[in-house]
Amino acid sequence: MDDAQSNPLDQVWRALADPTRRDLLDQLRAGPKTTGQLVEAVPELSRFGVMKHLGVLEDAGLLTVSRRGRQRFNHLNAVPLRQIYERWVSKYEDTWAGSLISLKRLAEQREQPMSAKISDQPARIAIVKTQIDIRASKATVFDAWFEDTHSWFFEKEGDQEARPTRCERELGGHFYMELPDGGFNALAQITMIKPNKSIRMRGDCTMPSAMIINMTITFEEDNGVTTVKVDHRMSGEFEDDLPDGFEEGWQDGLQKLKKLIES
Questions:
Q1: The domain spanning residue 166 has which CATH number?
Q2: Confidence class of residue 62 from pLDDT cuts 50, 70 and 90?
Q3: What is the DSSP code (8-state) at residue 135?
Q4: What angle do CA 166, 168, 172 make, to 5 degrees?
Q5: 3-state DSSP call for residue 94?
Q6: Residue 114 domain-assigned?
Q7: Which among 5, 106, 179, 192 could disulfide-bond with 183, CB atoms 3.0 to 4.6 Å apart, if both were Cys?
Q8: Which residue range forms the structural domain that includes residue 182?
Q9: End-to-end CA distance of the chain
């Protein structure tokens, strides 16, 4: 067994070691890009050279690909980065690091003119894609999505009581969160179920602004490993950091789902 198989994070470190590959990931932070757009962003390399780097990133799980007609769209997949973060960063360090980063952002924002902080477009579109591999059959993972939602998709801050979520396994069923006071928040409604294959939901995830969110979750199995892919698309009024917040939330939930099933 080679090193990449014994420790998947080794492959991630090797992919990140190259500055060109890091530049390509920087290009994808703002959203998916076609291969042609990435080739233009790295003029010193040939198309073949860029494709070779993209292949390394895809093999490491840092990049996912979708196709629309003849175009190939490349998407940043931050789950491996999240795995590195959770392995070496403690909750105590996370609190201090998060506070210092927030202070840095606040200071930099105050240096910018006010016009740079306000978007002139009231309606926007964003796409969040992420995925994770789970060592189990897709039937097992699909069942856990519905039956054990409260165990892997929940919010808990500090000593506050956890807010478990439920997902009703039926067309028109609700994906909703229980509140500490006995109330409920509906995140979305089930609009499609294909057993052991895919789920589609639509809602506003309780966002107070005018927006609609479509979420498609697919389950693909290969040699006893199920890949869960989340395609989260939203349109409407939202701040710049909201897509990152949704991506972090899905990554956290998928990591908990993986631990729940594999343990």
A1: 3.30.530.20
A2: confident
A3: S
A4: 130
A5: helix
A6: no
A7: 179
A8: 122-262
A9: 23
Are 141 and 129 spatial neighbours (Cβ–Cβ below 8 Å)? no
- The values of phi and psi at residue 214, to 5°, are -110, 130
Question: Domain for residue 107, yes or no?
Answer: no
* One domain, residues 63 and 127: no
pLDDT band at 225 (very low <50, low <70, confident <90, very high): very high
Please give the tally of structural domains in the chain: 2
210 belongs to a structural domain: yes
Instruction: Let me know: does 14 contact 46? Beta carbons within 8 Å.
Output: no
Measured distance CA(261)–CA(134) in Å, rounded: 8
Buried/exposed code over 127-145 (b: 16+ C-beta within 10 A; e: otherwise): bbbbbbbbebbbebbbbbb
Cα distance between residue 66 and residue 91, in whole Å? 35
Across the range 164-170, mean pLDDT stands at 90
Whether residue 7 has pLDDT greater than 80? no
Element (DSSP H or E) covering residue 118? none
Q: Which residues contact 244 (CB under 8 A, 6 or more apart)?
A: none
Same domain, 40 and 158: no
* Same domain assignment for residues 150 and 44: no
* 32 and 154 belong to one structural domain: no
Average pLDDT over residues 131-152: 95
Q: Which of 12, 42, 77 is the last residue of a domain?
A: 77
Q: How far apart are CA 18 and CA 104, in angstroms?
A: 27
Under a CB-based contact definition with an 8 Å cutoff, are residues 52 and 42 in contact? no
96: in domain: no
CA pair distance 162, 176, nearest whole angstrom = 14
CATH number of the CATH domain containing 59: 1.10.10.10
| Calpha distance 152→66 (Å, rounded) | 27
